[in-house]
Amino acid sequence: MKTIRFQGNKNIISEMLKELREKFGLTQSELAVKLQLMDVCIDQQAISKIELNRRIVTDYELLCFAKIFGVDVAYLLNGDSWFSE
After folding, report:
1. pLDDT by residue for the chain (85 residues), tens digit each?
2. Which residues 6+ apart lie within 8 Å of 9 measured at CB?
3. In sequence order, which ranges of the chain are alpha helices (DSSP H)?
4. By CB distance 3.0 to 4.6 Å, which of 13, 18, 59, 71 could disulfide with 51?
């Protein structure tokens, strides 16, 4: 299986995810539990890999992260509620 990378990164939400998680006062394990309650099979190690940019993020995971933190998907992708052109 070929590894997908963009400018050396496996995802583009790593920094924003960590920032939001810390802002909400959640540990990686607590975030994993919230995802598991949404039927997303993910554990603390996977959250760590996402934050360290060592794991891709599925569209379903992205949507669930946005729902947990009450933000638009666009915010996770680029720190804004609207996409830049």
Report:
1. 555 556 778 999 999 999 999 999 999 999 999 999 999 999 999 999 999 999 999 999 999 999 999 999 999 998 765 444 4
2. 53
3. 14-23, 28-37, 44-51, 59-69, 73-78
4. 18
